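Aggregate trends can hide what the representation actually does to any particular protein. In the encoding step, the backbone of a single protein was reduced to a row of integers, each denoting a local shape. The record that follows shows the chain in one-letter code together with its fold in token form.

***
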Amino acid sequence: MTARPLRSAQPVRTGFRVVGGRSSRRPNVGPFVAFTIVVVASMLGIVLARTSLDAGAFELADIGRRIAEEQERSQLLQLEVAELSSPTRIGPLAEELGLVYPEERQVLFVEGLDDTPDLMVESDAGVAMGGQP
């Protein structure tokens, strides 16, 4: 048996050497991902809030327009009521229907109520109406 000779304790130089200072670890991307998610969520929140405000503004403008239309309609109806309730219009119509001013004061009792009137109201025409309200 032959024994092999022991290797020497000195390293063999092959032309390669170890360079220190550089880590072989992967970079930590967790904070970057978290920051990106927060930024994207914030942007979406801003867009949704702005869209909601704009929709509310459109609805408010529509309500304002409808209010203006209804105010104009109300003014026209008030004018029509004023024209139809004018005494110069009602007088001739009443005469055509046979209505006249009474010549003397008359008391009118409404049937179906008590015989003694609790309420006496005198109108401009001089007629008192009696009965319970």
About this structure: The chain has two domains: 30-100, 102-133. The radius of gyration is 51 Å.
